[in-house]
């Protein structure tokens, strides 16, 4: 089944608006009408199974284009509008896109002259001249390629994750089930749609007939807080940096009531338990849902049920509905409680593979299992505790150190917004530990000695940072995820 049919087929007579917010309002009726018209144009002009790059900020038009590309049987390649020219050229060379759909600002900035380029003006013109199209179901096999999502590539060349129509349908169904989403749900979206977490919000709320509020300016914190009440948002989704900023950059979030906000979800990296405790203390009426996932799994792999948050604080929970998770050792055998192993996953949400990278695909998908590269432990009740990425482990004098353990201690210091633990070269130990802190300007009297003293009280001596550095702002990428280095 075509995933866009799955998302839209029940809403041909939906009376409500799908998109709300400062970027404008888009009704379900107009969404379906425009998706159908643009889809037919793609079918006639492009054909099917062609790669089409979409490079626009979140907007009504970007959503229409995204859905229309897949509805037409083509493959959407969402890219970060702020991508560097070198990275863009590499992806174009690898994907050979038939069309590029970009904002006029991006076209001018990047001086685009590759392939056929459509800006918002051209897309609007197409929609204005196309005749209305009655709803129709698209021919599609389940494993047909729907999209290629390129990983952030912070440490290596970005990989193109191939996501099928079946992958999207499976992950959307699972997320709706455990979050218990319905037509009344309205989610505030600050995550971009070239990121699988952002796309999962789009998919789930489309399927249930809910609404989304688009806000591309999280940096202006008050606009987000205003949206919560203005649009009666029932949900919010963020990566760790979003919650760290909400809780420690200002008191507005802590001191404001949000009567409609039913839940928040957090993924995109580990949020230290200090912040989760702080959130629950300030807003006990809002459910806090910890989640874990990967682009290679379409978006989501696990969640921690709200009722388990207190007793299993620090856990990423268990597999989402219809997904099996295991933590295994190097021989592929399930680990015993508290033994460290790698998280592997099996389900219909697991990617088809990496685009044009058969060797990398063979290393990552073995049999039916996705090998995530994430290290974890499991407790006696089967709850999983994420330890680190394999590449993040620091070896100090031959002893393995997880950065997250040290970061957890340091973010417990009042006034610390964020802490990153990285390895630096050391002639004696091989690697030594460096702590990079971001502190609230109102609490900037924290010294390196204070940090080391706190660590000495709570950690083994070899885990105490030898170097402590302060920086003004969080180092985050375009999805809001923290960048170490």
From TrEMBL:
Q: Which residues form the AMP-binding enzyme C-terminal domain?
A: 405-481
Record's keyword terms, sorted: Ligase
Residues in AMP-dependent synthetase/ligase domain copies: 14-355
| Entry's Gene Ontology molecular function annotations | ligase activity
Matching PANTHER family, A to Z?
ACYL-COA SYNTHETASE, MEDIUM-CHAIN ACYL-COA LIGASE ACSF2, MITOCHONDRIAL
Stated family: Belongs to the ATP-dependent AMP-binding enzyme family.
UniProt-recorded name of the protein: Acyl--CoA ligase
């Amino acid at each position: 089944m075509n995933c866009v049919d799955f998302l839209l087929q029940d809403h041909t007579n939906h009376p409500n608006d799908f998109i709300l917010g400062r970027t404008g309002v888009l009704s379900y009726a107009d969404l379906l009408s425009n998706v159908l018209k643009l889809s037919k144009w793609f079918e006639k002009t492009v054909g099917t199974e062609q790669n089409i790059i979409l490079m626009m900020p979140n907007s009504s038009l970007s959503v229409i284009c995204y859905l229309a590309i897949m509805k037409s049987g083509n493959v959407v390649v969402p890219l970060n509008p702020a991508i560097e020219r070198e990275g863009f050229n590499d992806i174009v060379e690898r994907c050979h896109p038939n069309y590029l759909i970009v904002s006029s600002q991006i076209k001018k900035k990047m001086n685009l002259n590759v392939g056929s380029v459509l800006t918002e003006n051209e897309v609007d013109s197409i929609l204005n001249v196309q005749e209305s199209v009655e709803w129709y179901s698209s021919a599609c096999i389940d494993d047909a390629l729907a999209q290629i999502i390129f990983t952030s590539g912070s440490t290596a060349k970005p990989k193109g994750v191939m996501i099928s129509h079946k992958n999207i349908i499976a992950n959307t169904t699972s997320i709706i089930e455990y979050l218990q989403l319905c037509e009344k749900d309205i989610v505030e979206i600050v995550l971009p749609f070239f990121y699988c977490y952002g796309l999962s919000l789009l998919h789930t709320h489309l399927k249930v007939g809910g609404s989304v509020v688009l806000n591309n300016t999280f940096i202006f914190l008050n606009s987000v807080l205003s949206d919560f009440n203005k649009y009666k948002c029932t949900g919010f989704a963020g990566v760790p940096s979003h919650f760290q900023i909400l809780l420690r950059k200002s008191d507005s979030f802590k001191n404001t009531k949000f009567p409609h906000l039913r839940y928040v979800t957090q993924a995109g990296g580990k949020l230290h338990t200090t912040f989760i405790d702080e959130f629950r203390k300030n807003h006990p009426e809002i459910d806090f849902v910890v989640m874990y996932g990967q682009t290679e799994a379409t978006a989501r792999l696990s969640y921690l049920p709200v009722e388990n948050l207190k007793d299993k604080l620090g856990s990423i929970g268990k597999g989402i509905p219809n997904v099996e998770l295991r933590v295994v050792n190097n021989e592929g055998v399930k680990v015993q409680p508290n033994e460290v192993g790698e998280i592997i996953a099996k389900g219909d949400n697991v990617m088809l593979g990496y685009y044009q990278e058969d060797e990398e695909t063979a290393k990552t998908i073995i049999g039916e299992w996705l090998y995530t590269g994430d290290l974890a432990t499991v407790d006696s009740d089967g709850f999983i505790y994420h330890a680190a990425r394999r590449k993040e482990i620091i070896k100090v004098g031959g002893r393995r150190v997880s950065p997250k353990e040290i970061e957890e201690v340091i973010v417990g210091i009042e006034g610390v917004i964020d802490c990153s633990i990285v390895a630096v070269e050391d002639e004696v130990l091989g690697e030594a530990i460096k702590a990079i802190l971001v502190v609230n300007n109102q609490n900037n009297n924290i010294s390196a000695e204070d940090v080391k003293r706190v660590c000495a009280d709570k950690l083994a001596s070899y885990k105490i940072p030898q170097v402590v550095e302060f920086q003004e702002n969080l180092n985050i990428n375009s999805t809001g995820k923290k960048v170490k280095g």
